[in-house]
Amino acid sequence: MNAAARKAAAAARLPAAVLVVVAVGAFLISYNLLAIVLRGGGGAATGAGRERDPVVAMPGWMRAAGSAGGGRRRPFHVALTATDAAYSRWQCRVMYYWYKRMQARPEGADMGGFTRVLHSGKPDALMGEIPTFVVDPLPAGKDHGYVVLNRPWAFVQWLEKAKIEEEYILMAEPDHIFVRPLPNLARDDPAAFPFFYITPSEHESVLRKYYPKERGPVTNIDPIGNSPVIIKKIQLEKIAPTWMNVSIQMKEDQETDKAFGWVLEMYAYAVASALHGVQHILRKDFMIQPPFDTKLGNTFIIHFTYGCDYTLKGVLTYGKIGEWRFDKRAYQDRPPPRNLTLPPPGVPESVVTLVKMVNEATANLPGWDDGR
Predict the structure, then answer these.
(1) Where would you tag: which of 105, 183, 257, 362 has the fewest CB atoms within 10 A of its CB?
(2) Is the confidence at residue 17, as pLDDT, over 80?
(3) For 335, left (φ over 0), alpha (ψ -120 to 50), or beta?
(4) What pLDDT sits at residue 73?
(5) What's the pLDDT at 147?
(6) How many other β-carbons are positioned within 10 Å of the β-carbon of residue 308?
(7) pLDDT for res 371
(8) Averaged over 242-252, what is the pLDDT?
(9) CA distance 362 to 243
């Protein structure tokens, strides 16, 4: 069954009263959290810090090109959620460098504006380098030490307060590197990358707490997280408050927290989308994840979430520190040095490309050695 048919069937099964309850509940929880933050419970992002937030505008050349082409282009706005930690900052700098490189190519016509949605509550040293919108973190203790829980709350605030011209949004992360210009993969349905470790059918008993049986089978829940996803802004505006509320409910439920661990927020986005009858076009070519994906193929993004460890003969030693390695977690408090040593012979194309692209970015980014 295609995505449109699945949506129609799901909508037909859902009583209107249930939709009303879900919508009202999501609104009330979101409103209460928002009120807490606006009363001062969510951080220090007020006054001068707020005045530095830019208008999130579509580039002028793209607006003109879209008009001249009769509106055939469908640009998306890149939204990158981040903290002000050194670990996040250096990844954001590399990511933004390659976004600009790919956007400048003729095939990059769909790559629109860019915003780092900074959920640390205050400006940081990258405000002048990367277009940034400052939002509040969750109230103290609400994330339970799970920093990713701030992501859906960041999107709720950004979508409410920013003026975003593009009709579509790409939700991205700091450890994404564009290896090719990315076209708009979405249509009426959003496009997402399927993760092999998001398996709703294996967690039905837990997911039924958030996705009741009357909504249909748990296979209506896509095997995705929120990133990378290209989605219509109007769809994300509806999903984001539910995503935030479900994330918090999941984190505060011990059984769910134990079952999902670090990917809990990913499951919450998938559930929230299903609750709104939104199904995603699953695109395996959206990105690769070295070292397990070895070839670039026709992919668009390298996601360097896993450590890459090899012997000097090019043999993968995953789970054991290799004689040669690149692991983003080795650079928690400082950026990696310029001119990283390239992998030894025999290491796959994906890892070699990753290191070369990091090296090119760090060679061209000012103040890299200062740890900005």
Answers:
(1) 105
(2) no
(3) beta
(4) 80
(5) 92
(6) 25
(7) 77
(8) 97
(9) 35
- The stretch 42-57 carries a mean pLDDT of 46
pLDDT of 160: 96
DSSP state of 208: T
In sequence order, the β-bridge partners of residue 220 are: none
What is the C-alpha separation between 265 and 229, in angstroms, rounded?
14
SS3 of the chain: helix, strand, coil, percent, to 5: 45, 10, 45
Give the residue among 87, 81, 174, 86 at the shortest CA–CA distance from 136: 81
What is the spatial distance between Cα 291 and Cα 275, in angstroms, rounded to a whole number?
34
Residue range(s) defining the domain that contains residue 113: 72-285
Note whether residue 116 is domain-resident: yes
The full 3-state SS of 69-134, as one line of letters, equals CCCCCCCEEEEEEECCCHHHHHHHHHHHHHHHHHHCCHHHCCEEEEEEEECCCCCCCCCCCCCEEE
- For the segment 242-246, the average pLDDT, to the nearest whole number, is 98
- Within 10 angstroms of residue 298's Cβ, the number of other Cβ atoms is 7
Residue 104: inside a domain, yes or no?
yes
* Single-letter residue type at 3: A
The length of the chain in residues reads 372
Whether residue 363 is contained in a domain is answered as: no
**Residue 241, pLDDT score:** 98
- Specify the higher pLDDT residue, 60 or 19: 60
The pLDDT assigned to 53 comes to 57
Look at residues 276, 278, 295 and name the one whose alpha carbon lies nearest to residue 287.
295
Q: Say which CATH number the domain at 223 has.
A: 3.90.550.10
Residue 134 has pLDDT above 50, yes or no: yes
Exposed (0-12), middle (13-18) or buried (19+): which is 277, by Cβ within 10 Å? Answer: buried
Question: DSSP E strands: which ranges in the chain?
Answer: 76-82, 111-118, 132-134, 168-172, 176-178, 191-192, 229-232, 281-282, 287-288, 301-303, 308-310, 324-326
Do 235 and 167 contact (CB within 8 A), yes or no? no
* 302 lies in some domain: no
Q: Are 109 and 62 in contact (CB under 8 A)?
A: yes
pLDDT of 350 strictly over 70: yes
